[in-house]
Amino acid sequence: MAEHRSMQRAALLDAARTLLSEGGTEALTFPALAERTGLARSSVYEYFRSRASVVEELCEADFPVWAAEVEAAMASLDGPAAKVEAYVRKQLELVGDRRHRAVVAISASELDAGAREKIRAAHGGLVAMIVEALGELGHEQPRLAAMLLQGVVDAAVRRIELGAAEDPASIAEAAVAMALHGVCG
Questions:
Q1: Looking at residues 39-51, what average pLDDT do you find?
Q2: How many Cα atoms sit within 13 Å of 89 on the Cβ side?
Q3: Per-residue confidence (pLDDT) for residue 71, from 0 to 100
Q4: With contact defined as beta carbons under 8 Å apart, do 21 and 98 qualify?
């Protein structure tokens, strides 16, 4: 019985990822989850008490995987500038990944305080990865620089997600240039 419940929960989370990546947060509804998984709507409530609880669980499952991919990309390189570039490029590369698309959709949604706090904590872990490299580059406030750098990455992600006039490669190049050389560089 426990294995069956675990499989049903995994199917619900996978359906939630698909709904988020296809239609954003508006698409993530319990009736849609029930339809995607073949469960009765009332059965969905046996697994999750609210849409926010689905979102929280997705963050707990998906954000660490995404962060590990960014960290691995950084770890494979030498030098702080190369690590900063990898930090930016890997996140932008992951925009097409369903886990990432779900996280982007989640971060844009209206959630309860608990879900927002979990997302903030996950983003804090991501930002912490780059602080050392920014310190090595001579930033006097590397933590602040890391938060601002993540803002550049988040803006580039939104630009890609919106299907901007620029192609994703151009957006990535601009974000890397801004990260390494600033606006005037």
A1: 90
A2: 15
A3: 95
A4: yes
